[in-house]
Amino acid sequence: MLKIFNTLTRKLEEFKPLHKNKVGLYSCGPTVYNYVHLGNLRAYVFVDMLKRYLVWRGYEVTHVMNITDVDDKTIRDSQKSGKTLKEFTDFYEEAFIKDLDSVNVRLPDVMPRATEHLEEMISIIRSLLEKGYAYKQGDSIYFSISKSENYGELAELSKQNLKENADQRLNVKDEYEKDSANDFVLWKGWKEEDGDVYWETEFGKGRPGWHIECSAMSMKYLGESFDIHCGGEDLVFPHHTNEIAQSEGCTGKHFVKYWMHNAHLLIEGQKMSKSLGNFFTLREIADKGYLPILVRIVLMKVHYRQNLNFTFVGLDEAQAIAKKILDTLIDLDFITATGENDFDAAGLVEGSRQKFLEAMDEDLNVSGAFAELMNLLAEVNRQIKRINPVQAKLLKEYLFELDGVLGFIRLIYDRYLVNLARVEKDSEIQEKIKQRLFFKSNKEYEKADGIRAELLARGILISDAPGDKYVLRLSYL
Ligand code: AMP
Ligand code: ZN
Asked: Mutation test of ligand 1: which of 234, 239, 266, 282 has the most ligand atoms closer than 8 Å to its C-beta?
């Protein structure tokens, strides 16, 4: 039984989708004004793993993730760059998709852009005005939180919290044009600094607020009520709190059944964020010589509700895990002898699959799942001499099956195969291998070993198999 922690109830709950085995999943996407950093990627890797696990578990998942391509930051920075908003945001959207690909995040089924969903947003705002949840002030339209009965439930905000929050904001900004400092904007009237970014609508010239985007795009593609909504924990308030208020105000229906929030990626104890300037992008990690896919392992390995401190030691550990798995796969590939046939590979796989599932069913306890994976590798290595080629194939297939959830094993293995083919076609290396064999047959062992050592330093290990055939394996990722 799959259990997930629902932020709405602060409880572990059995996962029961609204419609049989179909799951509607929405996650908040990026604001495309810059490259994403590793903190953002934690949110996307988490959703990817959740989605992969649901699919592995037999659910049919429809995943929607928005692209925020209009807001204060995209407008400000596109103006600075001298590009149109569209040219500017397209560039970062493309970079974002490349980054997701580098960490093997599967693209959502739908990736709607905010600027292409104005009609849907306008229709919600219109309905909120008609129902008395929203009011016009100046050229903008605001949501009145006092009209929303359960406002703040997701964030466990009491009326007292809200009042304190409002008082603070009023102290900071002495000219506040809203009725209450907590009311949030649905529609922003045009200001000079917006330049040519505006839509002419029944509300006048302006653009939508951020929160309304996600309500409009999630409900358009997943219906007025859907199963899971994800995002980083910083989005619980105000973003998701406001999404609930405006969606439920508009439809009168329960918006989302399960809310799931990933904890932050920290760096030196602080949230990694653009505004603090303490962030790394995937490009910077690659420039330091690490495979980007290792970032996926780092981000995934710690339970999603625990803070995770980013360090380069963590990346090295991820590399060690990847290498261990790859080495085992290569060992399995090199099994040629028939084993003793008394090894119960099927039993090992069945037991391991059960433990993997039990761990992941417990609110995606990925640390437990990784521990099981490591146990399996240790057992395979202990038994390697007893394993025959058929059993090796079964074990390998099982590792790839787990990779349906984990999403890095196949990628590392395929990369290894490409490198191996390249080495096998490399005439300089092939020449050295021939020389080594020549020295060996001439009993000039020192020279033969010299070549072997030289190749090993380049990550190419030659070992001799019976019949003078050499076996090549790469010792690098
Ligand atoms: P943003 O582009 O700031 O709206 O963030 C996109 C996603 O990344 C949201 O789900 C955020 O909650 C999440 N996020 C931002 N910073 C971090 C961080 N340091 N750790 C984990 N998630 C983050
Ligand atoms: Zn959102």
From this structure: 234
Rounded CA gap, 215 and 237, in Å?
15
Ligand nearest to the CA of 26: 2
Query: Which amino acid is present at 130?
Result: E
CA of 39 to the centre of ligand 1 (A): 6
State residue 368 phi and psi, 5-degree precision. Answer: -65, -40
Torsion sign across C-alpha atoms 282, 285, 286, 291: negative
Centre of ligand 2 to C-alpha 210, Å, is 8
* Residue 391, phi then psi, degrees to nearest 5: -65, -35
Q: What is the CA(139)–ligand 1 centre distance, in A?
A: 30
Q: How many CB atoms lie within 10 A of CB 438?
A: 13
Number of the ligand 1 atom closest to the C-alpha atom of 40: 8
Q: What DSSP letter does each residue of 318-367 carry, written as one string?
A: HHHHHHHHHHHHHHHHT--S---S---HHHHHHHHHHHHHHHHHBT--HH
Q: Which ligand is nearest to the CA of 240?
A: 2
How far away, in angstroms, is 271 Cα from ligand 1 center?
9
Mean pLDDT confidence for 91-96: 98
Residue with CA nearest ligand 1 atom 7 = 40
**Of 348, 461, 475, 472, nearest to 399 (Cα)?**
348
- Give residue 66's Cα distance to chain centre: 14
If you count them, how many residues does the chain have? 477
Nearest to residue 297, comparing CAs of 64, 96, 27, 477?
477
| CA of residue 33 to ligand 1 center, whole Å | 14
Average pLDDT over residues 273-290: 94
Q: What is d(CA 402, CA 52) in angstroms, rounded to the nearest whole number?
A: 10
Which pLDDT tens digit goes with each residue over 12-57? 999 999 999 999 999 999 999 999 999 999 999 999 999 999 999 9
Looking at all shown ligands, the one closest to residue 271's CA atom is 1
d(CA 445, CA 448): 5
Residue nearest to atom 17 of ligand 1 (CA): 39
End-to-end CA distance of the chain: 37
Nearest atom in ligand 1 to 264's CA: 20
